[in-house]
Specification:
The chain is α+β, with helices and mostly antiparallel strands and 390 residues long. 52% of the residues lie in helices and 14% in strands. The protein is built from 11 helices and 10 strands. Strands 1-4-5-8 form a 4-stranded mixed beta sheet. Strands 2-3-7-6 form a 4-stranded antiparallel beta sheet, with no helix packed on it. It has a two-stranded antiparallel ribbon with strand order 9-10. α1 packs parallel to α3, α6 packs antiparallel against α7 and α8 packs antiparallel against α11. It binds flavin-adenine dinucleotide. Flavin-adenine dinucleotide binds next to β1, β3 and α11.
Length: 390
């Protein structure tokens, strides 16, 4: 192997503070996250202590209000932090993205009193969050969810099963969308449920193709009682809150996808320089050089797309269409680039001795979560051509 480590990504960052932040993240990623990634993913071990460390470093509330422990960073900076974390290990990058998604409801739609009471612990007090929208029978058609919350005096009693919940069983708080009224999107309300609430339990984690270190589980709500002070937003506003969180969350998925793709490209370049065939490094062959060039170009295009969407959001302008485009393009890019990286490594790429087969398995899930890429195309088309006619 050549003595040549992959060069860090040359990032456009708006402030010195942001540059320091990226240096800090790279340091944590190199020292604490990347070295254990392969072994812990193989073993299916969730690195809870890494999230505690990230919380202590102020990295679990980056885009939120500093008054409540947030980092007051623009999305263009927060997303690049996520990308760096995902390059080191997707379980961590995606975990931070999901935690940020789970915090969105309270940080954006909560009352002042709720924010004072709960946000500091969520954003910088070591807690870890989960976001509960999907159910066994409602995925893409999330507005058909059936988990119920029934009013009982000053309380709500929540019953039902959520599916595919990232951090299910290990989270300290669950942002839960439940039906409180009519069928369809207008009958849904959001709640903040503590992880130790009586009646809340998680099934065994799903056995997944990749991201085995990130627990994904069904979460059962068996008459879970919460006070009305844990209702977030108005009754019936829950679906709008869920979608608002997903607009931002999709940008997180896009950034994570580019992180995984970058990791695969770095591994492919390093390997191509060291592996010799026909008396030369395989990096000399134009067939591979063009492949590497295409991979790098797709990554840069994806990074530019998610940053353009983030800058719209940071400027307070509509960004839902661009977020869907970024999620679609960046996750398809991750799938293509990681698949090509396996090809660059030949037979070795197909083994667990090198990281690219893991990156390829991990990339697949990004085309599915937070709205499949078919759903992203529906969102984009609605912006172009209006709602579908039936
Ligand atoms: C690892 C992992 C982690 C996850 N984490 C979370 C989480 O933390 N919280 C959470 O709430 N959910 C989570 N999810 C759930 C995820 O968001 C759903 O899997 C996703 O929304 C798709 O739903 P589904 O799996 O039920 O597929 P379905 O909705 O049943 O879709 C099946 C197929 O049909 C296609 N399809 C459906 N409707 C249409 C349409 N109208 N037009 C064209 N094609 C269509 C889909 O694109 C897909 O290809 C997670 C999933 C995974 C795998």
């Amino acid at each position: 192997m050549p003595d040549r480590a992959p060069q860090p990504v040359d990032r456009q960052l708006p402030t010195d503070e942001a540059r320091d932040l990226i240096s800090l993240v790279r340091d944590i990623a190199q020292r604490e996250i990347a070295p254990r990634a392969a072994a812990e993913e193989e073993a299916g071990r969730f690195p809870r202590e890494i999230f505690t460390l990230l919380s202590e470093a102020g990295l679990l509330g980056l885009p939120y209000d500093p008054e409540y422990g947030g980092g007051e960073q623009p999305y263009e900076v927060y997303l690049q932090v996520l990308e760096e974390l995902a390059t080191a290990r997707l379980t961590v990058g995606l975990g931070v993205s999901v935690h940020t998604l789970a915090s969105h409801a309270l940080a954006t739609f909560g009352t002042k009193q709720q924010q004072v009471e709960h946000l500091p612990a969520m954003l910088g007090g070591g807690l870890l969050g989960a976001y509960c929208l999907s159910e066994p029978a409602s995925g893409s058609d999330a507005a058909s969810l059936r988990t119920k919350a029934v009013r009982d005096g000053d309380d709500w009693v929540i019953s039902g099963t959520k599916a595919w919940i990232t951090h299910g069983g290990v989270a300290d708080f669950y942002t839960v969308m439940a039906r409180t009224g009519e069928d369809g999107p207008r009958g849904i309300t959001a709640f903040l449920v503590p992880g130790d609430a009586e009646g809340l339990s998680a099934a065994a984690p799903e056995k997944k193709m990749g991201m085995k270190g990130s627990p994904t589980a069904q979460v059962h709500f068996d008459g879970v009682r919460v006070g009305d002070d844990r209702r977030v937003g108005e009754e019936g506003q829950g679906f709008a809150i869920a979608l608002s969180a997903l607009d931002s969350g999709r940008l997180g998925i896009a950034a994570c996808a580019i992180g995984v793709a970058q990791a695969a490209l770095d591994a492919a370049v390093e390997y191509a320089l060291g592996r010799r065939q026909f008396g030369r490094p395989i990096a000399d062959f134009q067939g591979l050089r063009f492949m590497l060039a295409d991979m790098a170009t797709q990554i840069e295009a994806g990074r530019a797309l998610y940053l353009a969407a983030a800058r719209l959001k940071d400027a307070g302008r509509p960004f839902a269409k661009q977020a869907a485009m970024a999620k679609l393009h960046c996750t398809d890019t991750a799938m293509k680039v990681t698949t090509d990286a396996v090809q660059v490594l030949g037979g070795y790429g197909y083994t667990a001795d090198f990281p690219v087969e893991r990156h390829m398995r991990e990339a697949k899930v990004l085309q599915i979560v937070e709205g499949t890429n078919q759903i992203q195309r529906m969102v984009i088309a609605r912006h172009l051509a209006g709602p579908e006619t039936r």
